[in-house]
Amino acid sequence: MSYQARFKVWRGDADGGGLADFEVTVNEGEVVLDVVHRLQATAAPDLAVRWNCKAGKCGSCSAEINGRPRLLCMTRMSVFDPAETVTITPLRAFPVLRDLVTDVSYNYAKAREVPSFVPPAELGPGQYRMKQEDVNRVQEFRKCIECFLCQNTCHVVRDHEENKQAFAGPRFLMRVAELDMHPLDAAAEAGVDRRRGAREEHGLGYCNITKCCTEVCPEHIKITDNALIPLKERVVDRSYDPLVWLGSKIRRRKA
Amino acid sequence: MATGTDPETAAAGHAPARGVHHSTRAAIPAPHLRADRWWLSPAVTAAGLLAFVVYSTWRAFAGADYYAAPYVSPFYSPCLADNCVEMKGGADWGLVGSWWGLSPALLVLIFPLGFRLTCYYYRKAYYRGFWASPPACAVPEPHKKYSGETRFPLILQNVHRYFFYFAVLVAGILTYDAVLGFRDADGAWGHMGLGTLVLLANIALIWAYTLSCHSCRHIVGGRLRNFSKHPVRYRMWGWVSALNARHMQLAWASLVSVAVADFYVYLVASGAFSDPRFF
Amino acid sequence: MTRVDRQSWDVVVVGAGGAGLRAAIEAREQGLRCAVICKSLFGKAHTVMAEGGIAASMANVNHNDNWQVHFRDTMRGGKFLNNWRMAELHAQEAPDRVWELETWGAVFDRTPDGRISQRNFGGHEYPRLAHVGDRTGLELIRTLQQKIVSLQQEDHREYGDYEARLKVFQECTVTRVLKDGGRVSGVFGYERESGRFFVIEAPAVVLATGGIGKSFKVTSNSWEYTGDGHALALLAGARLVNMEFVQFHPTGMVWPPSVKGILVTESVRGDGGVLRNSDGKRFMFDYVPDVFKEKYAESEAEGDRWYTDPDNNRRPPELLPRDEVARAINAEVKAGRGSPHGGVFLDVSTRMPAEAIKRKLPSMHHQFKELADVDITAEPMEVGPTCHYVMGGVEVDPDTAAAVGVPGLFAAGEVAGGMHGSNRLGGNSLSDLLVFGRRAGLYAARYAASFATEAAPVVADADVELAEAEALRPFGAEAPDGAAENPYALHQELQQGMSDLVGIIRRAGEMEEALHRLSGLRARARRAGVEGHRQFNPGWHLALDLRNMLLVSECVARAALEREESRGGHTRDDHPGMDRRWRRINLVCRLADESAEPAAADSALGLVRLERQEAQPIREDLLALFEKEELAKYLTDEELTS
């Protein structure tokens, strides 16, 4: 059941590097991360790679396999032809640190820019009541394991470094959507306008809904259809729809 | 310490290379390493859309062979100019008047065209297929600058929901046209030909596509914070969501069906084919 | 000492899992400046692997539940060896800790009336586990992470700096807790990314580093679980208690080999899954021990009725505490009634409709589909025991989480010992993290605040130099014959030895052999060498972690050899019965070389000394929660009469 497979693994750091060739044994049922570990234990003890749970739950081992953003631990070797050379590179939207490890601090910086959940002032701990149908949407987004594959594949920042300033990326726009759909979030009462923020602070308008984030999501979250487009529609309510705007003006006057 | 959660500011200075070749990123000469046929999908999309554009341009400007009683081509309904052929009981309203000399299709096609042009699926399709922005996931786009839908003209994509309202009107009229297919050429009820079926299939797909629209999903229920307080809208949102999951398939199916319906009417109207009658 | 970066904080938390983050939040909310150090990226901690839920007697599903019932279940699960005060605090405070998470944005599954839904789990009398499908740990970590971000946003508004009072040093490893006299003065560590060393001066250090599973071959734990906190505490002069109790989760994946050990959540059984052997028999009915006979169903029919009518039926024996189920599976496999890949069958496909399985167990469905090509809605899973949790840990004061004997050192979560006794109930881990994480943070903050008026302990340059020399040793390592040892090979040998000799079923002779092998490995680990440089070098990291794993493994083996009975997570083939006299005895490990200075090249490798320690008698009112007959199974006659 075992065979010798050919691999190309990017090795190097911020100063440069290249694809190194390896030949390594692959056994039945293994995933790419197993192979990387075998390389570490044999041919390349100092090969840098991030990983943790090895079960697709922590989102640490993000990399690009044959040019596609994937989790190393959830990519089975059986999807490749034994004769095929498998190429593993670090994520290509973020600064490289060493080998397969990249600097993902962009994502942590963006996470901080999203205003947090605002607890409703009138409810204490234990008094929250929410119906399951009202939290389903939010729960889908909270499945996110923050592997940042969506952030990595999104051409807005992958192909345009300069957009990193203005664009939060799919993961954190989804976080805005999550909070905007949370049944008890009291942001509005606290003077935080999440929809306006989505447009003005987090760069929702940069998204051209080409769905690569959804394609690469290992949790199969429908990022585009369920988070980004609904958020765009909410922003239309807030900023671009004269009828809704007029309606809310009239209602506010009545109240 | 460099291990906080703050990004380190990239060293300023010489102009950095773009995108994946930016100086801070892993040094890999190839713009991408995808070994699969990633170009197939955008190529097919572009070819399909192009074919439709060519066909519809020809038919829209033709201004002829669009009515073969009792069938009217979906490209020409409703007819808003005076220069239409007479359609018995059909949506033939000369609202625009007689000064319009071009094909009457042009007046009405703006609406379905706008609906599809601003549709969230078609946007993906043509951004990828025609504009290569991006051509496929993790394949670099050729453009130097990118501002997405933040500026004119693409910021206008936000009007999608208005085109949706018009699309509902148009779909209503096409439904009416399909119902008229149950009358014979003389206006007597109790007729059904192959054309009736074609129009019915087309309008079913048009409705499915129209209702599966993301704006529709939002208007119907998506904008609510608490579904539990609006059980009827929640149920409707559930239905629209189920359709919405097939939005791409419906977009293509209805695009093909509309062309097929038009072509069928063209064949019958030009006399190249005679409509088989079932009863 | 120009090379080593130094910073000063009030409280340092080592570990950013549930306990560490909860401690950090508490310390920061007490107004202190708190640094969190973690080996992985922020938000990737092993807590994300927790699936089933958080045990808390909120009584949302069954109104009969309360903290006393939870306390009882916890003590029974731990076979009465638990530190009863910890079990009491845990049961009392767990609901508040869960509700608090909601105010920070956690979104649990709901009951029809909108409260937090609770599910059944092994050893819990009522449905008690607050959950989010089968990804509760992820929800917990994300919520705490987002709470930290929200505190940082507050600081940003106030000071213009997100990290003014709460900073996460991610991808850093601590190799030494530093001391000044007897008191904690800070930590020494390295950045994984750059290999640079750093010192954080702080009077209070909270250890929240999790467990030791990476010393075993088949484990559900990630690479981080190398017993760092256990070893740091030992080296700092603290003591480890109950180290012989290692929980083998009954259901880990057994196939394919690369995923062997990955957890299959207990919720599968809580929601109706059953265990069968190769004869198709539900064998668990044959393995109900006497102490649990009255609590569990005697027939399949009764067990099945329980899911819908829990008040009039007893629960199926698949839901016995984990140690019982793990031993039963082990016995079935040994008797030749195992599945093709050496496990048993766990089946939900015949018990629930496919849609319900996908809804209730989404990540299990996903995990088996993607990793093993098994569709759990249509076929049974193959499962077997996997090393999951260590009940033992740093001996702490139950109320303050302060490590006994080392002022300024605190421990919470899996690295702390005592709370779970000889066996932990599922769901009690996440609640443990929150309850004692908060307490550790609170008391660490109070302790650190006391240095506002008096001089704080000082980090000595000499200690830093020694710690640095110790950390750099693998780069200069050479054997007498010139060849350095490969740390990966050493690690594999260690795992193999611990699994084979100090695993789920133990014998005196094998454990003596294990101790012998450990001393050999220890000598060779001194020669573990690495290639390359210090920047993100996993070989080097492993070489350093080996010290911790060897130290902790020795504690486990020594304590296991000493305890001549079988109880909870400690099963002796040569002493199969539970002995009431052993209940009052805690086995405590400490470093044999009392000088806990980070000195001499080999001080870390010094042997461990074991002591017996009498447990505190259980408080009268807590004993009164149990029936006399039940107590008689655990307590000696002498304890009962006094």
Architecture overview:
Chain A: Pfam families: Fer2_3, Fer4_8. Chain A: Pathway: Carbohydrate metabolism; tricarboxylic acid cycle. Chain A: Belongs to the succinate dehydrogenase/fumarate reductase iron-sulfur protein family. The complex is a heterotrimer of chains A (255), B (279) and C (642). By secondary structure, chain A is of the alpha+beta class. Helices cover 37% and strands 16% of the residues of chain A. Chain A is built from 10 helices and 7 strands. In chain A, strands 2-1-5-3-4 form a 5-stranded mixed β-sheet. Chain B has helices at 40-62, 105-117, 120-129, 160-180, 194-211, 214-222, 231-244, 247-269, and strands at 67-68, 71-72, 79-81, 92-97. In chain B, helix 4 (160-180) packs antiparallel against helix 5. The longest helix of chain C has 25 residues, at 538-562. At the A-C interface, helix 1, helix 2 and helix 3 of A face helix 3, helix 4, helix 10, helix 13 and helix 15 of C.
Tags for this model:
heterotrimer; B: 279 residues; mainly alpha; two-stranded antiparallel ribbon; two-stranded parallel sheet; 8 helices; C: 642 residues; alpha/beta; Flavocytochrome C3, Chain A, domain 1; 5-stranded parallel beta sheet; 4-stranded mixed beta sheet; 36% helix; globular; iron-sulfur (chain A)
Question: Topology, pairings included?
Answer:
The complex is a heterotrimer of chains A (255), B (279) and C (642).
Chain A: E1 3-13, E2 16-26, H1 32-41, E3 62-65, E4 68-71, E5 85-89, E6 96-98, E7 101-102, H2 105-113, H3 132-142, H4 149-153, H5 155-158, H6 170-181, H7 194-200, H8 212-216, H9 223-240, H10 242-254
Parallel strand pairs in A: 1-5
Antiparallel strand pairs in A: 1-2, 3-4, 3-5, 6-7
Helix pairs in contact in A: 3-6, 6-9, 7-9
Chain B: H1 40-62, E1 67-68, E2 71-72, E3 79-81, E4 92-97, H2 105-117, H3 120-129, H4 160-180, H5 194-211, H6 214-222, H7 231-244, H8 247-269
Parallel strand pairs in B: 3-4
Antiparallel strand pairs in B: 1-2
Helix pairs in contact in B: 1-3, 1-8, 2-4, 4-5, 5-8, 6-7
Chain C: E1 5-8, E2 11-14, H1 18-29, E3 34-38, E4 54-55, H2 67-77, H3 84-103, E5 118-119, E6 129-130, H4 136-159, E7 166-170, E8 172-180, E9 183-191, E10 197-201, E11 204-207, H5 228-235, E12 240-241, E13 246-253, H6 267-270, E14 274-276, H7 300-306, H8 322-334, E15 344-347, H9 354-360, H10 362-372, E16 381-390, E17 393-394, E18 409-411, H11 428-449, H12 461-476, H13 487-501, H14 508-525, H15 538-562, H16 580-583, E19 585-591, E20 608-614, H17 620-623, H18 628-634, H19 637-641
Parallel strand pairs in C: 1-10, 2-3, 2-11, 3-7, 11-18
Antiparallel strand pairs in C: 4-6, 5-6, 8-9, 9-10, 12-17, 12-19, 13-16, 14-15, 15-16, 19-20
Helix pairs in contact in C: 1-4, 1-11, 2-3, 3-11, 5-15, 9-10, 13-14, 13-15, 14-15
InterPro entries (chain A): 2Fe-2S_ferredoxin-like_sf (IPR036010), 2Fe-2S_ferredoxin-type (IPR001041), 2Fe2S_fd_BS (IPR006058), 4Fe4S_Fe-S-bd (IPR017896), Beta-grasp_dom_sf (IPR012675), Helical_ferredxn (IPR009051), SDH/FRD_Iron-Sulfur (IPR050573), Succ_DH/fum_Rdtase_Fe-S (IPR004489)
Protein name (chain A): Succinate dehydrogenase/fumarate reductase iron-sulfur subunit
Organism (chain A): Streptomyces ehimensis
